C-alpha cells in the first residue's frame, strides 16, 4: 500500500511532515519516512493479545473469565482474581507482555491466577449496570472458589477494577481474604484531577448524548479521546516525533515497544450505556463511595465499612488520572485495622503503576510479599 495514496492519513500528519522537512530536509521519498507512515497505517487497525498461556473457563454476557495455569507451581497457593479496568481498553493490561505481566509476577510467587476479561458491549447488553457487573464479578469469584475449593480468595482491582473490587468486597466480605486496590478512584474530592473536573463540570445530558450516539453503548473511541485530551501534546505531537527519532537512529527495540503500546492503547471497547452513566453519576459526580448507603445494588446498600480484611492500596506519584490522595482515601472508609492496611506509592504514573516494568519489579513484588502473610 502506497502511503501517498492515503489522503486522510497524509492530512492527519501533514503538519508533522512539514515540520520534519523544514528541520531535516527529508525527501517525501525517503524510505525511512515510508516506513514511518506504514507503521501509522498499520496502527489504524490495532490489535492486542495475551502474553501468558491461558484458557477460558467461563463466558457470560460481557464477562470472559480466564485461567492462567501456574507452570512454576503445581500446587499453587490461594487463588488470585485480577479485575482489570473497563475503561475502553483491552483487559490484557494484566498480561501486557512477557516482561510486563502482573499475571507472571503472581505466578513467580506460586499463586493460581485468574483474570476477568471484560468484553466490548453490544447493544444487546446496553442496559447492564453496576449491579450487573458486581453479579458477573460474583460469578467469577464463585467459579474460582468451585474450581480450587478455597473459600476466601485474593481480589486485585486495577483502576476501575479497584473500586469495583472494593464494592464487591463490601457486599461479599466472607469471600475475600485480601483486597488489593491499585490506582483506583475512591474519594474523587480528595484531590482535583482533570477527569473528575471534566465529569463534574459537564451536564449528565452530555454523557447521555454520547451514549445515545452509540445506540445505547458508550463508544470506546469517545473514552480514548477523553484520555488523550488530558495530555494532548503527548498523544498528538510528541509521540510521533519520538517514533521518527527511533526510526532515524535505528532503535528497533524502541520501535517495537512503540508499536506494541500503541496497539494496546488505540484498541478500544464499548461499555454498556447504563453502566457508564452510573459510573459518571455515582463515582465522579456524586462521590457516592464515600457516603455509606447512598446507592444500592440489588437492594443492598453499598457501604465500604463492611470491609475488614487486610487491604493493600497502591497509587502512582505521577498519576494524573487518579492522584494518590483519591486512591489512598480508601483507608478512611473501611473497618480494616490500620495495622492491616498497607499503602504503596509507586514512582510512576497511572499506566506505569498498573503495568510498568519498575512497578511490577518493585511494587507488585512488595504486594506479593504482603500476601504471603495473609491467612
UniProtKB/TrEMBL annotation:
Phylogenetic placement of the source organism: Bacteria, Bacillati, Bacillota, Clostridia, Eubacteriales
Organism encoding this protein: Syntrophomonas wolfei subsp. wolfei (strain DSM 2245B / Goettingen)
Residues that span the membrane, as ranges: none
Pfam families from the UniProt entry: DUF3141
InterPro entries documented for this protein: AB_hydrolase_fold, DUF3141, PHA/PHB_synthase
Gene3D superfamilies: alpha/beta hydrolase
UniProt-recorded name of the protein: Uncharacterized protein
Amino acid at each position: 500500500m502506497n502511503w501517498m495514496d492515503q489522503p486522510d492519513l497524509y492530512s492527519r500528519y501533514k503538519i508533522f511532515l512539514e515540520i520534519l522537512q523544514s528541520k531535516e530536509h527529508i525527501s517525501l521519498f525517503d524510505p525511512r519516512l515510508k516506513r514511518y507512515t506504514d507503521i501509522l497505517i498499520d496502527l489504524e487497525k490495532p490489535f492486542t493479545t495475551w502474553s501468558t498461556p491461558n484458557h477460558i473457563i467461563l463466558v457470560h454476557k460481557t464477562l470472559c473469565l480466564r485461567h492462567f495455569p501456574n507452570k512454576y507451581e503445581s500446587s499453587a497457593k490461594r487463588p488470585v482474581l485480577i479485575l482489570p479496568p473497563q475503561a475502553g481498553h483491552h483487559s490484557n493490561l494484566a498480561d501486557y507482555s512477557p516482561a510486563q505481566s502482573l499475571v507472571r509476577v503472581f505466578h513467580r510467587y506460586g499463586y493460581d491466577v485468574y483474570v476477568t476479561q471484560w468484553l466490548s458491549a453490544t447493544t444487546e447488553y446496553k442496559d447492564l449496570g453496576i449491579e450487573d457487573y458486581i453479579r458477573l464479578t460474583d460469578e467469577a469469584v464463585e467459579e474460582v472458589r468451585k474450581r480450587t475449593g478455597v473459600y476466601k480468595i485474593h481480589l486485585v482491582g486495577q483502576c476501575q477494577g479497584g473500586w469495583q473490587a472494593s464494592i464487591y468486597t463490601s457486599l461479599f466480605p466472607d469471600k475475600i481474604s485480601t483486597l488489593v486496590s491499585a490506582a483506583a478512584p475512591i474519594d474523587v474530592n480528595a484531590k482535583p484531577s482533570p477527569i473528575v473536573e471534566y465529569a463534574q463540570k459537564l451536564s449528565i445530558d452530555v454523557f447521555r448524548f454520547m451514549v445515545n450516539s452509540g445506540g445505547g453503548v458508550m463508544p470506546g473511541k469517545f473514552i480514548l479521546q477523553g484520555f488523550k485530551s488530558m495530555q494532548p501534546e503527548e498523544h498528538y505531537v510528541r509521540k510521533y516525533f519520538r517514533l521518527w527519532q527511533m526510526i532515524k537512529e535505528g532503535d528497533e527495540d524502541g520501535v517495537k515497544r512503540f508499536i506494541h503500546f500503541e496497539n494496546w492503547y488505540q484498541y478500544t471497547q464499548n461499555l454498556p450505556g447504563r453502566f457508564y452513566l452510573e459510573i459518571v453519576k455515582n463515582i465522579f459526580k456524586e462521590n457516592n463511595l464515600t457516603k455509606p448507603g447512598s446507592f444500592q445494588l440489588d437492594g443492598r446498600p453499598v457501604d465500604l465499612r463492611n470491609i475488614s480484611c487486610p487491604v493493600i492500596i497502591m497509587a502512582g506519584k505521577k498519576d494524573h488520572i487518579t492522584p494518590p490522595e483519591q486512591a489512598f482515601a480508601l483507608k478512611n472508609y473501611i473497618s480494616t485495622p490500620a495495622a492491616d492496611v498497607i499503602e504503596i506509592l509507586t514512582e510512576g504514573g497511572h499506566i506505569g503503576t498498573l503495568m510498568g516494568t519498575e512497578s511490577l519489579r518493585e511494587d507488585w513484588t512488595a504486594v506479593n510479599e504482603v500476601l504471603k502473610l495473609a491467612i
